């Protein structure tokens, strides 16, 4: 790694630290600690892999939104799989992850940390949300606040480069 790139990365560390504290504060305040990892991974990509297509603001925003929307495919998948118990849930999660990943690739909005969003909402409901009311309201607030923060940082990061 060239020395100037390393120095540029070091200069970003205070902003990365403040942003991670902010994301963690929101997650803790709203009792949604599982919302922190997907956005922390997004922040790492934005700050440490500047210029990467995966860290582009469109990929960050639409990747997380697509993953969020894909959690509502879960009940459809669950109702159409002939398995029961852990195999049913594992199959539904696997198929949902695959579909979300394929859609991201087809739409050219790949953002790997967004896939973790599916697990966050799955864990929030201890299963698939049948409706939007199946997930505690603070999970949605934490998701959209976190998404706003990382998207803005990604946008301004790309705007400067």
Distance between the ends: 18 Å
Shape: globular
**Number of E-type strands:** 0
Q: Uncertain runs with pLDDT below 50, 5 residues or more?
A: none
Following the backbone from N to C, one meets helices and strands in this order, namely HHHHHHH
Percent of residues in helices = over 70%
Helix-strand makeup class: mainly alpha
Beta fraction? under 5%
Keywords:
161 residues, mainly alpha, 7 helices
How would you describe the overall organization of this protein?
The structure is a single chain. The protein is mainly α and 161 residues long. It has one domain. Helix content is 73%, strand content 0%. Helix 1 (3-29) runs antiparallel to helix 7 (137-160), helix 3 (57-70) runs antiparallel to helix 5 and helix 3 packs antiparallel against helix 7 (137-160). The longest helix is centred in the first third of the chain and has 27 residues, at 3-29. The chain is globular. The mean pLDDT is 81.
Helices, strands, pairings?
Blueprint: H1 3-29, H2 36-48, H3 57-70, H4 74-78, H5 85-107, H6 115-125, H7 137-160
């Amino acid at each position: 790694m060239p020395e100037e790139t390393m120095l540029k990365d070091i200069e970003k560390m205070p902003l990365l630290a403040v942003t991670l504290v902010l994301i963690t504060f929101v997650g803790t305040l709203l009792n949604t600690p599982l919302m922190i990892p997907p956005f922390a991974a997004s922040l790492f990509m934005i700050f440490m892999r500047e210029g990467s297509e995966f860290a582009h603001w469109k990929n960050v925003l639409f990747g997380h939104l697509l993953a969020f929307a894909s959690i509502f495919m879960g009940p459809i998948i669950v109702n159409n799989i002939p398995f029961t118990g852990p195999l049913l849930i594992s199959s539904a999660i696997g198929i949902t992850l695959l579909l979300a990943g394929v859609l991201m690739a087809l739409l050219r909005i790949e953002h790997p940390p967004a896939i973790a969003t599916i697990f966050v909402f799955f864990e929030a409901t201890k299963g698939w949300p049948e409706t939007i009311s199946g997930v505690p309201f603070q999970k949605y607030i934490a998701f959209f606040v976190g998404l706003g923060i990382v998207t803005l940082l990604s946008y301004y990061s790309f705007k400067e480069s």
